[in-house]
Design a protein that fits this description.
The protein is α/β, with parallel strands linked by helices and about 450 residues long. Helix content is about 25%, strand content about 30%. Helix 3 packs across helix 4. It is globular, with a radius of gyration of 27 Å.
Amino acid sequence: MADTVIRAENLGKKFIIGHKIERDGLLREALTTGARAVWRKSADLLRGRSLPAGDRLEEFWALRDVNFEIKAGELVSIIGRNGAGKTTLLKILSRITEPTTGRVEVKGRVNSLLEVGTGFHPELSGRENIFLNGAILGMSRGEMRRRFDEIVEFSGIEKFIDTPVKRYSVGMYVRLAFAVAAHLEAEILVIDEVLAVGDAEFQARCLNRMSEVAGSGRTVLFVSHNFAAVTALTRRSIVLQGGQLTFDGAVDAGLAHYTSTLAKSGSDRDCGHGKNATLITAKLVDARGVPTERFAPGTPLRLHVVLETTGMPGMSLEAILRDQHNLPIAFYSSAALNQVSLPARPGRYECILSLDAYQLAAGDYGFDLQTTHTNIIVDHRVDSAVRFSVDACSPDGIAYNFRQDLGAGHLAMRLTGPLEFVPAGSSGASDDPQPAFQSG
């Protein structure tokens, strides 16, 4: 199609990673392995390949058989767990690295912000780096002069614009880098998770700017784990899992698909351990203590948690309730909200978190669990530790099913008393006919 600006066909990227082999100290084995390594590295050097370190090499496919098309003016989010291949894909689209298999066609200039300091020379000032980035994109000095004031104003670092960027804080780096990326004349804007470094006010400005960029007919590719931002900005999502494209469609459906993959991978994954407390198991249980994957609105929400602790004082157990788009909607902390810390004696413990009887909308939900020290330092965290579903939300058996996908929220609110409509003025309210507030 004429308006297609990015086309990927059977795209794949392979890396060679090395592993160190522990030896028992035999001289013959050491000499043999060393000779093989020297021969292999010599061959790679002659062929112009990189030289991976390690005694044993392994092929790792960061991307495999990825196919998609993106049209001009689209706002597309790329979603996936850490290691799914998102950044590798963006680097290929930004022409930073070459694919191993397949091909990608990109029409127009690409301006990318993949990590803090991308495209900046540390010894140059902010002013000089702005003009350097414009020259790389092929813009004239006159064009850069016309845009310079707008870029500096957006970044909010006017006072330090002539300071070498090596002296910038991470926040200043990000502010200037995004301002440059978003205001230069490139047809495609690529933004990675780097925006998470900025404060809330700057992130909101960035999202507004990206919407303006897309509104002008340019294309935006956005990678973020902030699903509220993803939902607000994009209309289409591409989901990557293990280097493969598993979904391409509407953003709401894409987030639901991604969340379902978390649930499937949660039962057999290695969740690691903390320094002072480790979450062992967690499950949703009914009133009899029987594990379940269904929650009935209006009944207590019960979590059975098993954990180990070293007895460190000030440790807390915390739970974050998330909706089907993985957005946080409720929070609990044993220490902050109940003043109950984990036991001071080392050992393995179990507990029941009996939470409020929420009228949760129908749909899928999940709990992230974590242990923290003094409610600040996360010691051990397990995302999507518990997954469950609500089949129907019909308070008091009414003939209405309140669902998440209606877009009206997650909780059905109920009245504490009867609802009555009486003639105005008869309830003792003011007889003043003027409204209490006016719009506009």
